[in-house]
Structure formats: C-alpha cells, structure tokens
Amino acid sequence: MFNKADNHNIELEFKKQRRAETLTAAGSSIGAVILALIIGAVIIRLLGVNPFDAYRALIDGAFGTKNSIAETLLRAVPLAITGIGITAAFRASIFNVGAEGQLYLGATSAVCVGLAFPTLHPAILLPLMAIAGMITGALWGGIAVLLKLKFNANEMINTIMMNYIAIYFVSWLVHGPIQQPGSPLGQTAGLSDNAILPIILKQTRLHIGFIITLLMVLLTGFLIYRTVWGYQIRVTGKNMFASQAAGIKVKWVFLSSMLFSGAMAGLAGFFEAAGIQHRMIENISSGYGYTAIVVALLGQLNPFGVLLAAILFGGLQIGASTMETAVGVPASAVTLIQYLIVILFIGRKAFSLIIQQMKKNRKVAA
Amino acid sequence: MHPPLSSQKVNLQMQGITVRYGSFIANDGVNISVDHGQTLALLGENGAGKTTLMKVLAGIIKPESGRIQINGKEVQILSPIHSQQLGIGMVHQHFMLIPTLSVAKNVCIGLKSAGYPFPNILKVENELIKISEKYNLQIDPKAIVSTLSVGTQQRVEILKALYRGAKILILDEPTSILTPQETHGLFGIIKFLTGQGCSVIFISHKLNEVMEISDRITVLRQGKVTAEISKDETNEKDLSILMVGHEFTKKRTIKPVPPEASELVKIDRITYFDERKLPVLRELDLTVKKGEIHGIAGVDGNGQVELAKVLAGILRPDSGRIFINGNDVTKLSPGKRITAGLAHIPGDRQRLGLVMDVSLGENFILETSGKEPVSKHGILNFNNIRNTSKQLIKDYDIRCISVDQTAATLSGGNQQKLVLAREFSRMPKFIIAMQPSRGLDVGATEFVHEKLLEQRENGNGILLISTELDEIFELSDRISVIYEGKILATLSREVANRERIGLLMTGKTDV
Amino acid sequence: MIGDLFSFLTSSIFEGFLTASMRLAIPIMLAAIGGIYNERAGISNIGMEGFMIVGSLTGFVVSYYSGSVWIGILAAIFLGILLGLIMGYFEITLKVNQVVFGISLNLFCVGLTSFLFRIIFGITSNSPRITPLPTIMIPILSKIPVIGPILFQQTALAYITYILVLITAIIMYRSAWGMNIIAAGENPEAAETMGVDVIRTRYYAIIISGVLCSIGGAFLSTASTGLFVQNMTAGRGYIALAILVIGRWDPFGVFIAALLFGAADALQLRTQLFNFDIPYQFLVMLPYILCMVVMIFFSKSSRAPAALGEPYDRGGKKSEI
Asked: What pLDDT sits at residue C317?
C-alpha cells in the first residue's frame, strides 16, 4: 500500500497526534479547575467579598507556611490513597462508592489492634495495624462484588447502602463495646505511643503516611500500566465479554480490583486514626471516601494524576478554613468549587461542541 | 388508516446518489429505477453500498448529492416517518421492532393516525387481522414480538410497512435468516404484493434468489452501478462477474481427509437451557477429526451461538460432556481450554473477539497476557509485545498505522484479521469459526478462507458454523445441520447437496 | 381472639405506624416513579439523590419566605426541570458516562445545598421551621381499618402521588407517548425509524424524572418534617434506584416496593421510641439492610430496559468516559 518512507511519516504523524491528545487531556483537567475557580470568584463576589482577597487567603492558608503545607499534604493523604484505590475499581468498571464505609471500618479495626497490643514494638505494631485496616476495608468492599457476581445486584447501590451500615455500626462500637471508659463521647481510648505514626517534619503533624502514600502511588501506577493484573483490569473494564472469552478470569478481576480498592480505603482509615486522631472517633472522616471519587475522576484514573488532584483538593480544603476566618466566606464554598471542578471536567466535551456549533453558524452566516 | 395499497401506480427513480462516510465513498453517483408492480433486485457483495442506498430512501441517511423522484415528482426525504408518508416501507436486516411490545403496538408506534394521545389498539388489531389475512401473513396482532420466531418477525415487519401505507417495499437481505423453504414462502408473498401493484426492492448477494424473484437487476460494486439489466437478458455467471469483478473460482481441490484420521473433538449429548429455562441445545452430538473442517449449517437462531459459546467455555452446559484429544474439558474455564489448544473466532467480533478501545498490541495479548514470553512474574514485557505485534501485522497484512492505534480504528476486515492473527499465532489444535466472513468483502473473505484451509492442512480440526450455505459447501469436509439445538444429520461433502441440506434446515429428516 | 386482633389493628399505635409507613414511602415513591420515565426511555439517573436534596432545600426555603408550602413545591418543580435539563445535556447530548456523572452530580448537590443553607440562614442554634402540610382525612375511607390509615390519612401531596402513579401507568401502558418511551429504551434505532424522536423523548423523560425527584425531596422538608437538615435525603435517592429494580419498572410495583420500605423505616423509628434494649444504630441500619437483601432477591429476575445506559447517536457512534 504505502512505501516505507511514507509509512514512517504516517507513524510519526500518528505519534504526534497521540501526544497532542495526551496534552489536551491534561489540559482539560486544568481548564476545569480554572473555570471552576472563576465561577467560585463570581459566587464570592456575590457574597460581597473581593475574590482576590478570598483566594489570597485560601492560597496562604494552604501553602503559606511550613505548617500549612504540611496540613495540605496531610489532607491529601486520605484523598490520594483512597483515590488510587477507586481508580483501580473504576478502571475495572466496578463502581465502588463505598470507600467511606471501608475507611471507617478499616480505621476501627486498625485501632482495635493498636489498643490490643499497646506495648508491641512500633515496627511490628504499625504494620499489623495497617494490615488489619486493609483487610477489613477489602473484605467490606468485597461483599458488594460477591453480591454482584452471585446475584447480579448493583454494586454501586450496595456500596452506598453499606456505607450507612458501616458508619452506624462504628457509631455503635465507639458508643458501646470499645468506648473509652468514663467518656461521654463517641470515641475509643487513646492509642499508645507505639501505635502512633511517626512525624516526618518537625513541628508539624505530617506523618510517615505521606511517604507511604507516595510509594503507593508509584506502586499503583506500576500495577496498572506494567503488570498483567493491571492490564487485565483495563481490558475487562472496557469489554468484559471479550476478556472472559479470551480466558481472563473476569470474576477475579472484578473482585481483586475491589479488594485493592477497599484495602486502600482501609489504609487511609488507619492513617487518619494512627496519624491524626490517635484513637478511633465517631466522625473520623469528613467524606474522604466521597471526595476521593471526584479526585480519582479529575486525576483521569491515572495514579499520578490522582496524587496531583488530591494535593489540589487538600490545599483547597485546608485553605478554606483560613479563608473563612480571614474574609468570612464559608468554607463550604470551597466544597462547592471542588465538585464544580469535576462536573465541568466531565462536561468538557461541551466546549468543543459549542466551538463546533459556532464555527458552523459562522459558515452559515458567510 | 388508509387501505394499504391503492390502485395508484408508482414509479421511483434515484439519480446520481452520492453518500460519503468521512473519506469513504459508500455510494458514488448511483442511479436506480423501479416501476409499478415490479421487483427490482439490488445485487452486490457485502460493503458494495446496497444498504446505504436504501437507508437514503428510508430517510435515515441524507445523501451528499443526487435526486429522488416519486411518480415524476422530485422529493427530499427528510426523515424515516417522511419516507413512510411517501409510501416507502423498509424491512431492515436487523429488525426494527420493540421485542417487549405486542405486534399491534409495534405497528403503530409513532403513528398519530392510530389515535393520539391514546391509540386505539383494538381497532389497529382488527385492521391488522384483515391485512394479515389478505396477504396470508399469519400473524396474531396481540402476540408479544419477543415470543415470535424470526420468520414471523420478518412478516411482522412486512405487515408494519403495509399498514403504514407502503407502496414501495424494500427488503434488505431478507433471506439470510430464512430456510430455503421459508424463502420460498417469502417469494410467494413478494409475488402477491407485486401482483397487487406494489413495487419491491430486493437486496441480496445471492445470485440464484435474484434470478428467481426479480424483474430487473441493478448491480452495485464498490459504491457504483456496474449494470442495470432485465433478468431475461442475463444469467448467474454474468451477474457474478459484474458483482465481484472476476469470475467466482469455486470448488477448490482439497485433499480428502483420510478416513482413519483420529478424532480430535467429541461432543457428547450436550444440553443447554437459556435464562428463560428453555432448551437451546438438546442432547447434541458432534465430532471433529484432525485435519478436517466440519461445517455446521442451519438457520440463524437454532442454537449455533450457544454451541460456540459452550465449546469455548463461556457458557456451562446443563448436561453432556466435551472431549478434546480424549480429555474431558467440560468443566474447564475458557482460559484452560485455550491452553489446551482451543481457538475461538467469535461471530460478534466487536463484542466477543476484541477490546475496541485498546491498542492493537494489547488486543494481541488478550489470551496470552499471563504467559511467557508476553509477561514474566506478572510483569508485561513490552518489547516482546511490540515486536510480536509488528510481526503479526505484517504476516496477516493488517492495514494500520501503528500498533498503538485502537482496534476501533480498523476496518471490519482488518479487525477480523486481527482476531485470526491472534488465534492462529498460538498454534491451536481445534478452531471454532463462527460466521468467519460475516460483513467482510470478497477479498477479506477469501483471505479468511485461505487461512482456515491452511490450518486444516496443518492437521488441525475446525468447526465451521455458518448460515451461509456457500461458505459451508466451499470449505467443509463434512456438513451437519443444526435444527432447534440438535444435529439432524451429518453428510459427507460428496453426498451433500443444497436441496437436502435445505430441507434438513427446516427440520425435515424423512428425505 | 378476633376481637383482640381487631382492637390491635385499630389501636392508635398501630394506626400511627401505618400512616407513618406511607408518609416515609412517598419521597422514595415519587423519585422511583420519576425513574420509571427515564430508565424506560433508556437513560439512567444515578443523580436522584442530588435531585432530591435540591428539592428539599428549594421547597423549604421558598416555603419559609413565601409562607406557602405550595409555592415552595412549585419552586422545587422548577429546579427539578432545570436539573433534568442539565442531566439531559450531559447524558443525552454530551453522552458522558452516566454512572460517573450521576455520582458526581449527587456530591455536587449535597455540597451546593449545604453551602446555600449556610448562606441563607447562617449558623443558628435553633433551626428555622415551617408549618408542614396538614393531614387531610378522607371522609369514610379513612375509617377503614388498616387501609384507611395507610392510604387516606395523609397530606395532599400524598394523594397527588397516588394520582401520579395512576397517570404514569396510563401513560406507559395506554398512551402513544408511553410507547415512544418504551421504544426509545428498548431499541432506539428502531424507534427512530418508526418516527420517534429518541433524543427529544429522552429529554422529556429525564425532565419529568427531575421534577418528580425534586417533589419527593420537597416532601421530606415541607410535608414530613417542616425543617431542612443537611444531607436529609440520607441515601433515599439510591434506595429509589433499588426500588425501580424491585418494582420491575412498573408503577404499581414501585408503589408496593416503596411502601415496604416506608414500613421498614416506620418500624425502626417506632421501635426506637419504645426503648427496647436494641442500640438505635442497628435500628437506623434496617432500611439499608432491607434494601440490600431485597435487591439480592430481585436483581437476577428483574429485566432492565435493553438500551438502558447506552447513549443514542444518530450516526451510530459509541460513547467514552
């Protein structure tokens, strides 16, 4: 058909096109962020506050000092780690909306292990707690996939239901069997020093969980793009029928992607309990399991993108409270901007559609 | 509703119709014309542009240029409903029916004249009974479409078109799902319709049928009209040259399989019930020998899809056993069967054969991703994947730009080559080929057939399941007929003939 | 014996349970009835939860300031139309992944309502209240044992809901438009050849769904409680999705299934009052557990519309995430 030189040129052209596509994809995430911030500015203006002042306070609160950077990164930890788990599940077309419940249960069982062996050496105790949290999160998530495989029950609805069940169950635990003796609050006794994650940046709360998060991001990237397991997750998510016909154990792919997802949520729970609260409390997560979904989407189901999105969202959340005290814009405005970012990102195709339409109109006019 | 057929005479002309899909020209200045009471055959191989042309007439596609005249008046066909108002009715190859609704409801969806906002279903049913009796269509308008046989559903489509006032009826490959005997019945209906003054456009690539039913014939090749002739002025041989550009090279000379060839696959009394608990395969027995192509003929929907899936391990049979090389594989997963030497060329390659949104390279390793040298200790070897993929693309002449492009960007023929390349590169022993040339043009079909014969030469066993009798006769050493989930008879290549197979396809064994 | 049973059935405790069952069922029922339209038309609405919470807040705020619950509900209807249009634009025109968009929209709506509530009412210790819709006793009918309290001792909005169930059944099974919806959800390509405008049909369906979900949410704040609480829908939008499966996309099936859930919810609330030795957390879990268990039984046999979740493109192209 083509001669060799032509062929080579075509292939180069194709590669160029692919690179352009990758850039556009990254650009669309950034574009969504910028557009959402602009819309946020309009809202802030409507509240009678100068948006520049508000955003300055926000950025200051998020990245202004060593401590604020540490807090931002600290907030990014549960979002990133849960987000990469969700990435694996969504890639396999398993819609795990249950990370919140998995996180709660993971945190609880990690703390239970910590309380049971307060004198064990940290090098043994901390991994034990992490493993307990991961296993619990994985099992809780795994139930939803087993119900899907066995009864064709929708895993998205079930994981939502299981969130409510898990959170109420944990509420009962911390008000009942594992409540701190003598305390009226819904919390357990404090963890011993051996069961607390070491700090990696002096005079801040930034703990070793952040390093582990970075390692997990690298590991997940490797798993998804370089291993047979990741490959099978990707193809099964795209076409489970062809994958099954080709001998891929799709049931195992579904289950294992969820187990991984649940384990990551459980690990995040362990970090929150052993790194920040130093005990189990009733409201250990302020919706990290849900926010992590949009973090995963904004990160385009790419672990490295997820990490960046998590740091961005961490910064927004930490900066929000500074902004509230400084200029009086409610912190929930930032929550709104977060979700707006993702809505805009999902609807990114609208922009090219509108441009097309405008071009067409101009043609008609001419 | 108006009486379905008026005495008014109709005449349809399409002139210079051009349709493009991107850079591909599907119709290139096509002219056709059909008269009152006439049957026009539109003859051409797959991809020649027949269906596209008819979609223009049905208001589904708008042509880039060209004129359409009905009764001498130029018309613009704006939408499907407008096309129907102009008296055009189309029976699509894939039925345009809503399976969960009754025949009567199917007929009057989108028709305000049936009563709006509340259609008078009872009245429609009575009218349908009358039309059905008049044309001997034998349809109960109260029946839910999903409970009807394929042949009946086709008649529902005809009934629907007639009820909607069709004077020009387009039938797109109507016989591909019918037995020779059912085809005969359909031809009776067509003759009756034209006798009543209706015009029929009959789309087909089967020469014998075209010669039997049509008055005039228009031949399309690669989007262009190559001939427009009266049936009496031509013959099958001339038509075949017009259709494919060269004469059919039929009847290969194949070395016969030695009778002492050992048995490769044995299927022993397989029974399979579908989701509705209805038996789809009923104690089916079958063998495939080494170095043999065993063709399974039959009308679509007699259990072929399930047979292929049961053999590939995608469906679990309810009873019975499957042996490959004497080993019982009945309980093995698809993956283990693949390891045992099974290859599967599925009928629905886009759904079952390929992952359309990932690269060619990733499609090549779909079955081997867990094995060396594609991967080691669970880690993919991209160098190996790239090199193997490039080699396969070269060996199987897959027209593409890069191994990184997605399977979705390939043409149908190249997608099928991709599947063949993947399956055959694993050196399988037993191959299930389901409708391997469906939707392919002559060149690609030829390629697929040659590759299958090559596998046969290598001593591998092939189960060829096809509804195309031509394909079955051309390739098979033995021919079995499947009917309602059972093998009715197995005939050797020498004793099988069209008539006998055709009768068996309708379930008649006493011949 | 029979006398005992009768006096139990007519006791105020049991009657209270029965009226509460329907009262708690109505929001889910409204949302699920809305779901019948869009899912039968072949388009999913995972965003029901979000639609409901927006309806709750809108209904409450507008009632609060206008002094009329009905104006509040009207406002909720308007917001429902708007949300339906947005969802239609994303799912029908842009053809985005419907699950991903639905989940994200829910999160967005929860964030939006919390933000707006905070802006409008500030941080107050005593939460603002409105007078909820009054109960209307239907003469004679409300006196029938069991049936009376369930069906005929309710608010006007509940009676409207019954009518909507009936209207939906008539539309789906008798009207030309219902046939269009079913055709668009089973085989959109065929529907188009028969003269159905699939895109428009789906837009109408999702807008109706938006309106009904929004009214369902407004019912929570304006008819059940008279106040707005952050995240007060508490997963009811997702339960409504399950109700659709359990009710097999049939208006009457949905009616029964929603009532079952209302009863479970009423039961756990009443049990809490009785101070049994059961921790309240286990009682609150009950509806969610019930939802899972019942789904397990119905999922295998329930058949969804064939083209559900598949975007329709006149050119025949497929969608991407």
From this structure: 38
Q: Which of C45, C49, C95, C238 to mutate to test the interface with A (most CBs of A within 10 A)?
A: C238
How does residue B253 score in pLDDT terms, banded at 50, 70 and 90? Answer: low
For chain A, the structural domain boundaries read 50-328
What residue of A is the nearest CA neighbor of B314?
A245
Q: DSSP label at C70?
A: H
- CA of A292 vs chain C CAs: smallest distance (Å): 11
Q: How far is A294 from chain C (nearest CA, A)?
A: 7
In one-letter notation, the amino acid at residue C189 is E
The 3-class SS string of chain A reads CCCHHHHHHHHHHHHHHHHHHHHHHHHHHHHHHHHHHHHHHHHHHHCCCCHHHHHHHHHHHHHCCHHHHHHHHHHHHHHHHHHHHHHHHHHCCCCCCCHHHHHHHHHHHHHHHHHHCCCCCHHHHHHHHHHHHHHHHHHHHHHHHHHHHHHCCCHHHHHHHHHHHHHHHHHHHHHCCCCCCCCCCCECCCCCHHHCCCECCCCCCCECHHHHHHHHHHHHHHHHHHEHHHHHHHHHHHCHHHHHHCCCCHHHHHHHHHHHHHHHHHHHHHHHHHHHHCCCECCCCCCHHHHHHHHHHHCCCCHHHHHHHHHHHHHHHHHHHHHHHHHCCCCHHHHHHHHHHHHHHHCCHHHHHHHHHHHHHHHHHC
Q: Distance from C82 to chain A by nearest Cα, in Å?
A: 15
Name the band, by pLDDT with cuts 50, 70 and 90, for residue C297.
Answer: confident
Question: Would you say residue A3 has pLDDT above 70?
Answer: no
Q: Report DSSP letters for B67-111, one per residue.
A: EEEETTEEE---SHHHHHHTTEEEE-SS----TTSBHHHHHHTT-
Looking at residues B468-486, what average pLDDT do you find?
89
Which of B32, B86, B70, B77 is closest to B202 using CA atoms? B32
- What's this model's pTM, rounded to 2 decimal places? 0.90
Check if B11-244 and B264-505 are the same fold: yes
Q: For chain B, say whether C250 makes contact (Cβ under 8 Å).
A: no
Residue spans per domain, chain B: 11-244, 264-505
**Residue B367 near chain A (CB below 8 Å):** yes
Q: Please check whether residue A360 touches B, CB under 8 A.
A: no
- Chain B: closest CA distance from residue C307 (Å): 11
ipTM score: 0.89
What is the C-alpha separation between A289 and C169, in angstroms, rounded?
A: 39
Task: Please list every residue in chain A whose beta carbon sits closer than 8 Å to the beta carbon of residue C32.
Answer: none
The CATH number of domain B264-505, selected from 3.40.50.300, 3.40.50.2300, 2.60.120.460, 3.90.1200.10: 3.40.50.300
| Residues A115-124 pLDDT 10s | 999 999 999 9
Cis peptide before A118 (omega within 30 of 0): no
d(CA A329, CA C113): 16
The fold of the B11-244 domain, in CATH, is Rossmann fold (3.40.50)
- Decide if domain A50-328 falls under CATH 1.10.10: no
Q: Do C100 and A147 touch (CB under 8 A)?
A: no
Say what the pLDDT of residue C32 is.
97
Interface probe, candidates C40, C194, C196, chain B, greatest B C-beta count within 10 A: C194
- Nearest by CB to residue A14, choosing from B339, B346, B405, is B405
Nearest CA in chain B to A17: B405
Residue of B nearest to A247 (CA): B335
Within an 8 Å CB–CB cutoff, is residue A5 touching chain B?
A: no
Q: Do B117 and C186 touch (CB under 8 A)?
A: no
**Residues of chain C with C-beta less than 8 angstroms from the C-beta of A95:** 99, 103
